[in-house]
Design goal:
350 residues, Nucleotidyltransferase, domain 5, 2 domains, 6-stranded mixed β-sheet, 5-stranded mixed β-sheet, 10 helices
Length: 350
């Protein structure tokens, strides 16, 4: 079975062709083609993603990338057995472009179109093996249940309990800004370019290597709350007030502030995850979402997993951000029955 995956939840137009099979009752996959076209350069001058601009670019890019991936994979569209497309969450104008393209293609080819939850994609995306060989088939990384998934991205921060693949319970989520959103907003305050998360991390890393003295102190929101909820809006506001107090900020102060912000975010993430581990007793910890590309946060989760002797899975390089491979793998696992009548849901939950 060959599955076409389409992802247009934000500012990446992404397509993937995946061949799957069952061998001795075990699900296996082979990547035939995987394309991610980023719009960062277009949105950078605005300091963030403009939904209608993203929509326009998706409409322009989808047919071009579709023909390109068929050529690169040396696959005929008649070989495609089903289509998986992101339904939500995300920016609805952007989501609709992928959905309408998938639905029209599904009608043309007479094959099912399966709506996929973007966040489930991030979970399964962290279970993909390191190799993306077009020749060999691969197995998903083995998960012992119950498992915990921590999803940290531009639009989401949540801890999810998994009893099996496809069965999820959200234990806690952000009550305001998502972690990636907070990174980007703080970056704008510091005059850094979009996307801001990687820029803050560069400054924070430089502060640690240079042993810049720690003078700035920021709060750790909801660190001691008796639940698994997150809040980053207050931390963002604390950065704003700190910048007002400092006035003309020096380069050293900027490094110190970036490091302190990253430390605060990481401490809250690890503390909440530790509480969830102690409460739920999971056997596997899965981290997904674009923010896990942050080196400091990755190292903190590695340390936490070692301390609790728990298996840890994080996405390999290139698969932490939005991509169609993670959407396609979810669609390939799901039953073949699809629907042509579903709609985009910007606030879709697991």
């Amino acid at each position: 079975m060959i599955t076409l995956g389409i992802e247009t939840s934000c500012d990446e137009t992404a397509l993937c062709l995946l061949e799957t099979q069952e061998k001795d009752g075990v699900f296996e996959y082979r990547v035939l083609g995987n394309i991610v076209h980023s719009q960062i350069d277009i949105h950078k001058e605005y300091g963030g993603v403009f939904p209608m601009l993203a929509k326009r670019e998706h409409i322009k890019n989808l047919p071009i990338l579709y023909e390109k991936i068929l050529q690169e994979a040396r696959t005929s569209e008649k070989q495609i057995g089903k289509i998986a497309v992101t339904r939500g969450p995300g920016l609805e104008p952007a989501l609709w472009t992928g959905i309408l393209f998938a639905q029209e293609l599904g009608k043309k080819l007479g094959i099912p179109v399966i709506p996929i939850n973007h966040m489930e994609g991030h979970i399964l995306g962290s279970l993909l093996s390191k190799s993306e060989s077009h020749i060999e088939f691969h197995k998903l990384l083995p998960v012992e249940f119950p498992a915990l998934a921590v999803l940290i991205s531009g639009g989401h921060t949540e801890i999810v309990k998994m009893e099996k693949i496809g069965e999820y319970k959200v234990l806690g989520a952000t009550v305001d800004d998502a972690i990636g959103e907070a990174f980007d907003k703080v970056a704008r305050m510091l005059g850094l370019t979009y996307p801001g998360g990687p820029e803050i991390s560069k400054l924070a890393e430089k502060a640690r290597k240079s042993n810049i003295e720690k003078k700035i102190k920021l709060p750790r929101p909801m660190l001691h709350s008796k639940d698994l909820k997150f809040s980053f809006s207050g931390l963002k506001t604390a950065v704003l007030y700190t910048l007002r107090e400092l006035g003309d900020i020096s380069d050293e102060q900027k490094l110190d502030l970036a490091r302190e912000f990253e430390d605060a975010v990481t401490e809250v993430l690890i503390s909440k995850t530790k509480s969830a581990i102690e409460e739920e007793g999971p056997k596997t910890l899965i981290i997904g979402g674009g923010v896990i590309a942050n080196k400091h946060i990755r190292l903190a989760f590695e340390k936490l997993a070692n301390e609790h002797s728990i298996t840890l899975y994080m996405p390999v390089n290139g698969l932490s951000g939005d991509n169609a491979l993670m959407i396609t793998i979810v669609g390939a696992i799901k039953p073949r029955e699809g629907s042509l009548g579903f709609k985009a849901e910007g606030n879709l939950s697991l």
